[in-house]
Amino acid sequence: MSMHYLAALSVTLGAILLLRWAFKWMNGGRTGEEGMLLPPGSRGLPLLGETLEFFAASPTLELVPFFKRRLERFGPIFRTNIVGEDLIVSLDPELNARVLQQEERGFQIWYPSSFMRILGANNMVSMLGPLHRHIRNLVLRLFGPEALRLVLLHDVQQTARDELRSWLDRPDVEVRTATSRMIFGVTAKKLISHDDVASGGSLWKCFDAWTKGLMSFPICVPGTAFYKCMQGRKNVMKVLKQQLDERRNAAERKTVDFFDIVIDELNKPNSIMNENIALNLLFLLLFASHETTSMALTVILKFLTDNPKALQELTDEHEKIVERRVDPDSDITWEEYKSMKFTSHVIHESLRLANIAPVVFRQANQDVHIKGYTIPEGSKIMICPSAAHLNSKVYEDPLAFNPWRWKDTPEPVGGSKDFMAFGGGLRLCVGADFAKLQMAMFLHCLVTNYRWKALSKGTMKLYPGLRFPDGFHIQLLMKT
Q1: Which secondary structure element, helix H or strand E, spans residue 382, and what is its range?
Q2: Whole-prediction pTM value?
Q3: Closest CA to 216 of 353, 358, 68
Q4: Which of 351, 372, 373, 232 is nearest to 298 (CA)?
Q5: Contact 57/463 with Cβ under 8 angstroms?
Q6: Would the N or C end of the chain have less CB density within 10 A of its end CB?
Q7: 288 vs 285: CA distance, rounded Å
Q8: Phi and psi for 83 in degrees, rounded to 5?
Q9: What are 184-243's pLDDT values in tens digits?
């Protein structure tokens, strides 16, 4: 037998083994242990999985093609592999409800390792049990009902008035950037007594770089969005660490912001909080309290621009509130805020249609049997809220912006299988009421005093998270 023949045979056998491995990788097997039937699906390309398709841009607000194609092929529960993780994807309302309502029993919080690199290992998102509940209660001291009514209602109004007044001097305002800076200014003062305007917006710029890479392909190479994201996080954490050290070492200290609440926790004997947890908590709160809200406001202004009827009804609601006052220039009262029913409809409809939070992750603590399939214990699960928000069986003409659809339905106070804009279960967003307050106050100050002219189309795309690739540019004008 010649050496050439042996070499050719080796190459052939190697190719066959490689093809078998690739086929096994892509299909991943249809049955689990003891013949259990796993959901259908594919792992995609070796190593890459189906990551590239997942991050591909979609030019409409429909269910993104990645999910739509697999829904048509496999049904609402299927398997995939993204950023190196084998995942069970749920577009199924029944499974979504079970996952969110059985938090810390049948399921627990989980996020891909690439995502955890961005958030940091010791963050509120990944905390379980008593530690998560304790941190949540601390945060409610800042964003809870009493703080909203007694403190934040006034502060948010004042900030909105000042911000909108500053827009009059500018021929072109990019809405997401401007509202992001505005909201960050409010929360940075409440959390760490930081005046970002006075510092030239330096801290906000670090967060903006971090945000842009949050849903990017996780390659940490200089020049990529993910690299800039990680550098932004590094710079923010450096600032927070410096401020924490200065505050802890101060000769005298009074409780003036959330930083002081955190320091008091750190100084308690046998505290369950440590410095890393404290810094990551502040980082996450600074991000969460402004980014999604600014995006939601941009979406609302875009939808209102394109729907004069909705804008008119919203304006009428707020002008009637002003007309009923003894002093038209007085602050909005809590009762006035709670009376803004159509405003609430506009907010919820915008959040439903825009799907600002594209996915939710969990991990199964036990075998889950559903729809004839078994999801084995330890499986990572990715929920897609837009599948629920765009469900034509629940929402008539789901791609239409129709705030009136909420008129005869109960206010979606918490999460449900049909509305998951703020999550659900024990993990319902702790800042949901604060976010809605900020949106309502901004809209009140806007429509009662100003009008605006769109300078750009404000095209929205999903990557799968929502973005305005070219921004949404407007010119603000005083009402005449």
Answers
A1: strand 380-383
A2: 0.87
A3: 358
A4: 351
A5: yes
A6: C
A7: 5
A8: 40, 45
A9: 888 888 888 888 777 777 788 877 777 766 666 677 788 787 788 888 888 888 888 988
